[in-house]
Every structure is written in C-alpha cells, then in structure tokens.
Amino acid sequence: MGQISNDAEGVGTSAGGMRDVSGPLSQALRLLQQAAAAAGDPWGHDASVREARAQYEEGHANLLQALAAAGAVGGGSVDRLGSTAQGMVETDESSAKIAAQLNR
User: Fold this and answer.
1) C-alpha–C-alpha distance, residues 38 and 103, integer Å
2) What is the per-residue pLDDT for 4?
3) How far apart are CA 8 and CA 97, in angstroms?
4) Tens-binned pLDDT, residue by residue, of the chain (104 aa)
5) Alpha-carbon distance 43 to 46, whole Å?
6) In sequence order, what are the residues at sequence separation of 6 or more whose Cβ sits closer than 8 angstroms to the Cβ of residue 9?
7) DSSP string computed for 8-53
8) Distance between CA 7 and CA 70 in Å, rounded?
C-alpha cells in the first residue's frame, strides 16, 4: 500500500520564517511613514523643484505601496501556513485512527 507523508513541522517553521520577515517590513513601513510625516513639506514652491518633487513623490508612493503589499502578503501567509500546518496534524491524527480501525 502507498504512503502519503507530510511535514507539518516544516510548514509550521515556514510560518515562523514568514513572520520573521513580515514583521520588520511592517515596521520599516511605519518608520518610513512617520519620518516622511515628520519632515513635512521640505519642497520649495518654485518651478525649478517641481519636476524633482514629482519624481520623488512618485517613487516614495511606490515604495510605500510595495512595503505595504509585502507586509500584507507576509502576514497573510503566516496565517495560512499556520492553519495548513494545524490541518496537516489533524489529518495525520484522523488518518492514524482510521488506519488503526481498519487494521483490527
């Protein structure tokens, strides 16, 4: 008879790894947002800085968006991996019970 095996512990470890990555990303996003807010409006209002300001603001917005997306993906992955690991353990336990009943 064939066997199916899984590594629930490895999946659980992966969840911890994702948490280790997503936490610092979320913190970096918060710190960057706080620093930008604290800086206020450092730009002058003359024509010579308008183009530089537009380029900076677009890049800054893109960076904030990327950090937010990465943190959201990481956080969601942590939850999904944790649930998957728990489901794997429960499936293993149920399968063992069924196998024991069939082997009586």
Assistant:
1) 69
2) 66
3) 18
4) 566 667 777 777 777 777 777 778 888 888 988 988 888 777 777 777 877 888 888 888 888 888 888 777 777 777 777 788 788 888 888 888 888 888 87
5) 9
6) 85
7) HHHHHHHHHHHHHHHHHHHHHHHHHHHHHHHH------SGGGHHHH
8) 26
- Tell me the residue type at 33: Q
Give the Cα-Cα-Cα angle 24, 15, 96 (nearest 5 degrees). Answer: 170
Can you read off the two tokens belonging to residue 31? 């710190």
In angstroms, the CA 25 to CA 15 distance is: 15
| Whole-angstrom distance, CA of residue 41 vs CA of residue 29 | 19
Predicted pLDDT of residue 39? 82
Tokens of 28: 């970096």
Q: What Rg value do the Cα atoms of the chain yield, rounded? A: 24
